[in-house]
Specification:
The chain is mainly β. Strands 1, 5, 6, 20, 25, 26, 27 and 29 form an eight-stranded antiparallel β-sheet that branches. Strands 2-19-28-21-22-23-24 form a seven-stranded antiparallel β-sheet, with no helix packed on it.
Length: 431
């Protein structure tokens, strides 16, 4: 490996790659003499920008999935029946064709979006004139005008809605729009895109039944979310005004714009699923690297680095898994979330030889994790915490396939994003 001199920015100085804060010293992946790697100190962007001038051959990765560079994702075989939405580079809701990798800019940076199947139970997600009108007390029937505003998808499809309590101030005064989906006793995630005509409008959202969520609108589109568990009684996904229940009072009238209503099972809202008269199912994302595209993998040793933003730990979501496609359950390894603690596992010839908890994951935040494997030397690290080591590990044989955001039988999908995934065909202490 070529080591640069201790000049500012690249050498053994304080700010560079090879200092304690960088890649090659005690905090990084590549110091052969120190068994410690903290993925928070790994800066793959800096690494690859500089690789032709300062990185030796051993440090070059054989796989780098970088969503900012579409061609790096061409090795992925994506399977998803039907279209699915994502947030594009311009911040607009766009539709992805079937069997494609969705690169989502929901947080302003490109990330691979991986989601399980979900059903939008709101039968009219954009046509609010098809919703039920509810008025009580002094409440006046809402006035709905279709397609009056540019919606979050960039098209003039958002409806204008005028709510008016008629001067009523008691809980008996109400005006709202609602739909009544079929529900069972479980959590539901409701979401809707809203903006106010003037900003500052306060309206109420009810996801399934019971209480309301108070929303304060601005003149910019926001996706509001509410999670409720349905127990029994009235089933209603609802937006509107009601007197006497909001601290400090509620506006007597509110002129708002609405688009993209969604209600789905679970504790998180997923990407928008348009409907028009019936419920609609979005298929799950299945992302696989196999065949000739799997030539990056080294059977005897390697290191995987991932940046990910998981939304939930429900249903044992997997960040990635390698496995032997002819003996899928017996020989595999990867990382998953049995709960908020991340688990690194290795199965060889039907026996689990490694099961290491690396630490607690941060939901809805960027997490950095790394794992290295070779016989009797498996290491894992999460978010800069001290590595977890296993020194009695057998390594699975015949690995020929990688699942991204899932597992070999596609039953445990990630619900979230992957910002970067890099693979080196070497153990971290072999470089």
């Amino acid at each position: 490996m070529k080591i640069q001199s201790a000049k500012a920015g690249i050498g053994t100085g304080r700010a560079g790659l090879q200092a304690a804060s960088g890649l090659f010293s005690s905090a990084g992946l590549f110091d052969k003499g120190v068994k410690s790697f903290h993925p928070n100190d790994l800066d793959p962007y800096l690494l690859f920008d500089a690789q032709t001038s300062m990185i030796g051959t051993l440090e070059n990765p054989t796989l780098d999935l970088d969503p900012s560079k579409q061609d790096t994702l061409d090795v992925i075989t994506a399977t998803r029946a039907g279209v699915a939405t994502y947030t594009d580079f311009n911040g607009l809701i766009a539709s992805a064709s079937p069997n494609t990798v969705r690169v989502d800019y929901v947080d302003g940076v490109p990330m691979i979006l991986v989601e399980p199947s979900s059903v939008n139970l709101v039968t009219y997600s954009e046509e609010f004139g098809q919703w039920n009108e509810n008025t009580n007390g002094n409440g006046v029937s809402p006035v709905i005008t279709s397609d009056q505003e540019i919606a979050p998808n960039g098209l003039q499809e958002a409806d204008k809605i005028v709510f008016n309590l008629g001067g009523g101030t008691s809980t008996g005064d109400e005006v709202s729009l609602s739909l009544s989906p079929s529900l069972s006793g479980q959590p539901y995630a409701g979401s809707i895109y809203l903006k106010g005509e003037n900003g500052g409008e306060v309206i109420l959202l009810r996801t399934v039944t019971g209480g309301y969520t108070e929303l304060t609108l601005t003149t910019e589109w926001q996706r509001f979310e509410s999670i409720e568990t349905y127990v029994s009684g009235t089933r209603r996904f609802e937006i509107g005004l009601r007197g006497g229940i909001v601290s400090g009072g509620i506006n007597n009238t509110a002129t708002i714009y609405a688009w993209g209503a969604q209600l789905e099972t679970g504790s998180v809202s997923t990407s928008y699923i348009p409907t028009s008269g019936s419920t609609v199912t979005r298929a799950a994302d299945d992302l696989v690297i196999s065949g000739s595209d799997f030539d990056f993998y080294n059977q005897s040793e390697g290191t995987t680095y991932v940046e990910t933003v998981p939304k939930t730990t429900t249903n044992l979501p997997h960040i990635f898994e390698y496995h032997n496609s002819s003996d899928v359950n017996a020989n595999r390894m990867g990382v998953y979330l049995p709960n908020v603690s991340l688990n690194l596992y290795v199965r060889s010839s039907g026996t689990t030889t490694v099961s290491s908890f690396l630490g607690n994951i941060n939901l809805n935040q960027l997490n950095r994790l790394a794992a290295s494997y070779k016989v009797n030397d498996v290491l894992g690290s999460l978010n800069g915490e001290p590595e977890v080591a296993d020194t009695s590990a057998a390594i699975p044989s015949g690995i020929d396939k990688m699942h991204i955001g899932n597992v070999y039988n596609f039953n445990f999908p990630l619900n979230g994003h992957i910002k970067r995934l890099i693979y080196w065909p070497y153990h971290s202490d072999s470089l």
